[in-house]
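Quick question: what would this complex look like in 3D?
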Amino acid sequence: MLSRTVRRALQDANLPPTYLLPFRARLSTVGHTIDPEPVPEPLLNSAHISRQTPTRPYTPPVSRQSSTQPAETATQPTAALPAPTSTSPSTPTTPLSDSIKDLLPLLRSQTPHYITAHLHGRPYLLTQGDTLRLPFLMPGVQPGDILRLNRASVVGSRDYTLKAGAPAASVASLPKEELGHADIRAKQSYVDERLFVCRAVVMGVEAEPMRIKEKTKQRQRHVRQVKSKHKFTVLRVQELRVRSLEEVEGLA
Amino acid sequence: MPYFRITLLRSAIGLPAKRTGVLQALGLRKRMATVYHPVTQDVAGQIMKVKELVDVAEVEYPLTRGEMKKMRTPDPGYYVERRAGDVRAEFEGR
């Protein structure tokens, strides 16, 4: 009953659609069904951007609906990234889509950036200078090692957000051995790792206070004490930046 | 040759012993276990006996347990770009 009234109240409130809400980049993941809005003038006229795309002046696409939305829509092509090993990272070679080419300089021009980096499938929202205590002890690293975080679902700034595409991998892009197994593949897709640089330095290892758990058995006076003291790796985000288009194309 | 990919979604606890026997014959011992069998009439009959408990898909190639584990394991998301020991060695060698 209560939930029904709440739902009705929400319907009656007549909220504007999400694309009309301010201060939030509205981003689609797949395809470009909605016309992107023109770029705000201060960003368009900044010399910083025109320096980055000298040969390709931005032409705002034809917009049929007018709105006061400040942010742009960026899409990420849904290309399955090859799995990297711990030592040799993968380098995707798919060409950048036009929306990325248009909007990446805008994202790059607006600092600071944030990133949702995924470590072992778990998301961590980070910015430069953050200290991150991982919930596990990272194997095989020493204090001072520099890690590259290369899996991110979101890279953004205040007004712009680059989101990863939908994870549905097309059957044609799968290797031959995995035909028919697409439904058990990973559900998460990631932003193209050429577009950003995220470096973290290993600060050290932190330990929690010793925990003592008393274990008892029935009809026995003896109480066993189980001790545990877990260790956690501490990282610090040393560098987080979005690459320029020249850099990205220079990698390929 | 096509294969059936059979996953046990519901346990056979409380069901007649014959159903449990069919699951045992298919090699399904616990929930969410996945086995591959070639597409034949007798396997199809076995699946029909336990069709309420399993999820079936037809695939081209069977996967080993290791391959299935690898497919559902998420990416580490990092790699070691520079080791502190290497930096120290460079500094001392200079």
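Answer marked as accepted. The first strand of chain A starts at residue 114 and ends at 119.
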